[in-house]
Amino acid sequence: MKNRKYIYLLALLPFLVVAFLYEIVPLIMIVVNSFKPDMGGAFTLENYQTVFSKLLYRKAILNSIKISLVSAIVGIVIAFLGARAAHQHQGKLNNIFMTVLNMVSNFAGIPLAFAYMILLGNAGFMVNVGKELGIDFLANYNLYTTGGMSLIYIYFQIPLSTLLLIPAFDGVQKQWKEACTLLGGNMSTFWRKVGIPVLMPSILGTFSVLFANSLAAYATAYALMMNNISLLPIQIAGCFTGEVRIRAGLGGALSVTMMIIMVIMIVITNALSRRFQKGVAKR
Fold first, then answer.
1. Alpha carbon 153 to chain centroid distance?
2. Spatial distance between the Cα atoms of 213 and 211, rounded to a whole number of angstroms
C-alpha cells in the first residue's frame, strides 16, 4: 500500500513541478514586484497609489467589472434555459446540442473578434443588411464600444456556462416535480420554490467562473479594440510589452488588483452558496 502511494506521488511530481514553476513562482514575483518602484529602490505603495489615483486605471477597473458582471449575468440566464432544455430532452437532438456546445465553447480569442468584425463591424454584413432594409438598430450598430464588447463576451460565456450547468440539473429529481403538482403547484412554482434554490449553489459557482473568465480575457478585446478601450488585461499587458520601457511594478499592482477583485467575487458567491445550501437543508 505504501509503495502504491509513492507511485502516485511520483506520477504527480511533474505536475507539481510545473505548477510551482509556472504558477506559484510567477505569482510570488508579481506580488513582490507590485511593491517595488519601476526605477528601483525600497518597497513602496507608489504603484497602488498610481492604480487608484490615475483615471486611466480606475476606468480600466470599472470597465472590466462592468463587462464581466453583464456578460456573466446575461450568459448564465441564457445558459440556465439551455441547460434545462438539454436536461429535459434526451436523444439525438440533445447529442447534437452538446456537440455544438463543445465546438463553440472553443471559439474565442482572435477568430471570434474577426468573426464579429465581419458581421457587425463598421462595414460588416449585418450592418449593410440593416442599411439596405432600413433597420436602424443594425445600420447604426457600433461594435467598437463597451456595449459591443459586452455582446462578444456574452457569446463566449453562454456555451461555457451551459456545459457547467447541465450536470447540476441531474440533482433536480422528477419526484419533486410530481410532489409539487400534487400539492397544487405548477412548473413556475416548482422552479421558484424548489428547482432554482436547489441549483443556486451551482449557479453561483458558475457565475464566479464566468466573472473570472471575462475579467481576465485579453485576446478578443485587444484584437478588436487594441488600446482604444481601457480594460485591466490590456493595461497589464501594456506594462510588460510597452515600446518605451517595461513597468513591471505597475503591471504587478494591476495584476494584484485583478486577483483581489476575483477573490472578492469568489468569497461573495461562496457565502451566498452556503446560505442557499443551509436554506435548502432546513426545508
1. 8
2. 5
